[in-house]
Amino acid sequence: MRPRPHGCMTGPAKTVVCPTNCNEVHTFSQSDVNYIHPSHTNVVNHHTIKNTHFYPHSTSYQNTVNSTNVYGGSFEVPNQRPPFFR
């Protein structure tokens, strides 16, 4: 091959392909996954009715009076005094 003069191109240039330089780039992504955990609260309200019973009681008193008439006989005046008055 003949040397080329400076600044003068004669023929196609030789092309050399070097081995591919591999670069590794790491990317990160995030996914949101919703987990639903249902729960239920049952509120049981308890109500107690307190029934208070009253038994008012009164006491009354009643007095009864019975009257009887007894015949005691006739009144006689003795003619003499009893012996202890003598």
Can you give a write-up of this model?
This protein is low in regular secondary structure and about 90 residues long. About 0% of the residues lie in helices and about 0% in strands. It has no helices and no strands. The chain is rod-shaped. The model has no long low-confidence stretch (mean pLDDT about 80). InterPro entries: Spore_coat_CotD. It comes from Paraliobacillus ryukyuensis. This is Spore coat protein D. Keywords: Capsid protein, Virion.
Task: For the structure shown, list the relevant keywords.
86 residues, little secondary structure
What is the fold's blueprint, element by element?
Blueprint: no helix or strand
Task: Give a quick precis of the structure.
It holds the Pfam family Spore-coat_CotD. With 86 residues, this protein is largely without helices or strands. 0% of the residues lie in helices and 0% in strands.
Terminal residue distance:
208 Å
**Topology, number of strands:** 0
Q: Identify the overall geometry.
A: rod-shaped
The low-confidence parts are none
Major sheet details: none
Number of helical stretches of at least 4 residues: 0
Arithmetic mean of pLDDT: 82
Q: What portion of residues belong to β-strands?
A: under 5%
Task: Determine Rg (CA atoms, Å).
Answer: 71 Å
Q: Portion of residues in helices? A: under 10%
InterPro entries: Spore_coat_CotD
Organism: Paraliobacillus ryukyuensis
Keywords: Capsid protein, Virion
Protein name: Spore coat protein D
